[in-house]
Amino acid sequence: MEEFDVLSTLLQAQEPELYTIPTHARGPQGELPLTPKMLREWASGDLFGLSQNVGMGWEPAKVAGKHILMLSTQGGIRAEDGSPIALGYHTGHWEVGRLMRAAATEFKHAGSVPYAAYVSDPCDGRTQGTPGMFDSLPYRNDASMVMRRLIRSLPTRKAVLGVATCDKGLPATMMALASLRQMPGILVPGGVTLPPEHGEDAGKIQSIGVRYVHGEISLEDAAQLGCRACATPGGGCQFLGTAATAQVVAEALGMAIPHSALAPSGEPIWEALATQSARALLHQIQLGWGMQDILTDASVRNAMVVHAAFGGSTNLLLHIPAIAYSAGLRIPTVADWQEINRLVPRLVSVLPNGPVDHPTVRVFLAGGVPEVMLHLRRLDLLDTSVKTCTGHTLEDALNWWEQSERRQKVRARLLEADAVNPDDVIMDPETARARGVTSTVMFPVGNIAPEGAVIKATAIDPSVVDEDGVYRHTGPARVFTTERKAMTAIKDGSIQAGDIIVLMGRGPAGTGMEETYQLTAALKHLSFGKHVALVTDARFSGVSTGACIGLVGPEALTGGPIGKVRDGDIIEIILDREHLHGELNVIGDGIRRFTPGEGAILLKERLPHPDLAPDPQLPDDTRLWAALQSASGGVWRGAIYDVDRIIEIIEAGRKALNV
């Protein structure tokens, strides 16, 4: 019982206002200064950037003025009242300074000397459809490297606290903390933004351009909806994309204190997490623990189990292996992911997976990660003997959570505020099964993807899935070598129901493995989009939905057969969502049909697509990243920098060249 009392002291807060948690906000008022020309020609990322700007408090009428970038080590500059002096790139790093201040105050109060350093991060939503996306995934490795250098550049440090929120900054911070090994560390998730009381979430809003062009919304609708999508100025987006999933994974790894992922940014219960985390880190110092006591092969597997139960973003297939590598642990394989996703039921109903699209703040109020873990513990799917950053085992933490006042109050608040039963957001396995909730990640293979590919099977519209739980789609390939041309084809009506978009040359060697969310967002929110599939060697945003298959390997620019598909080829996609088995094959060339084996021979004999080439705007920095991660084992090993492998290859090359 004593350990429960310690956890209560560590995590409990008595202030009643902590539990008066809003679930919606009015959002910025006014409208964006959009024109028909902007909506027809601007990339979705450019348009979404305007929504981010007003979400941080900028006057809507002025957001389209000249954008001036002032580089510093912080995301934006806030006045004392929270109003913007200089904008950040996104809401996710806009308020985290408050968490830093709260943690620093606690450290100082305890007699410690806090230091603060900053490595800002980009916004994947802002860069969708732009060359800025070419720096997205490579940034993660760079930022983690800089963070590690900053850690080492303070030789007197005794422990490290990280604060991060979003798609790449959070995995980078986790990688840096994982490398601490014998030193204590802890992570404070930066939380989520609230959805507007009336309007669209930050995922759907990224499709306003294509919906306007197709006549599905008006100019006035686009301007007003875009203005209020980011209803509060801080936190990651309101859906279980990469940012939210990474927060969940951090807590599941034991790096973040219980019930810290997905807290509403700016609220008292969110700010209290920083103070509580500071106390927990000081407790680790007293115990003599290091990050190596928390991050183990067992805790990594726990995180993968929780990822499957949440139905998290497929981008964590890149980040969890990288965190494991940084910690000196075994790197999970595709076989590990397959095993876990076949074993673990999905239990969370949340944007964008459904079946009901609850925003992430409702998942927090329903109990978040520890509530999901209670169900997983009953199924004997977790190793609860692992240590957590609280200074206690996961078993102790879950026992505390199950009996805690915090659990009772946040779940009651969800029912009070939104009239939503928390057990309808985080379901028990029997309820989830009865509501048709299926597992998340599957890895189709075939003559287009002999090394495999990935799809979030839960994101396929149920209305196009057969009664036996299998998605079947056979259709003509519509081949593109740039995302812009594919988006233009969707906007001008060239893509029809039944088509299969093949976007090639957008993997690491072509674009730094860009996200192609503007395509999936457009297809999701167009009436015919659920009848179109997308196959690419690029990757997808965590909020992507639909029959979108990414990370096709080998990538086109390294000789992968996806780079030999031609317009009019007949592609067959079969995805068994129940048994998580999938196939992806060319079975015709527009003139005749043939078997997948015959298709493999055809693709082998063909020359690559004549337009296949690295993007002309690909930065040298990203070309270097692509080469280094390829030498390290590629994306299926987490797109890491394996220094030993890289040196071995360089030395072999020098010997071969006699230099």
TrEMBL record:
Pfam families: ILV_EDD_C, ILVD_EDD_N. GO terms for biological process: branched-chain amino acid biosynthetic process. Residues 445-582 form the Dihydroxy-acid/6-phosphogluconate dehydratase C-terminal domain. GO terms for molecular function: 2 iron, 2 sulfur cluster binding; xylonate dehydratase activity. Residues 90-396 form the Dihydroxy-acid/6-phosphogluconate dehydratase N-terminal domain. It comes from the Bacteria. Transmembrane segments: none annotated. One of its GO terms (cellular component) is cytosol. InterPro entries: Dehydratase_YjhG/YagF (IPR017798), Dihydro-acid_dehy_C (IPR042096), DiOHA_6PGluconate_deHydtase_CS (IPR020558), ILV_EDD_C (IPR056740), ILV_EDD_N (IPR000581), IlvD/EDD_N (IPR037237). Keywords: 2Fe-2S, Amino-acid biosynthesis, Branched-chain amino acid biosynthesis, Iron, Iron-sulfur, Lyase, Metal-binding. PANTHER family: D-XYLONATE DEHYDRATASE, D-XYLONATE DEHYDRATASE YAGF-RELATED. Belongs to the IlvD/Edd family. NCBIfam families: yjhG_yagF (TIGR03432). This is Dehydratase. It comes from Dictyobacter kobayashii.
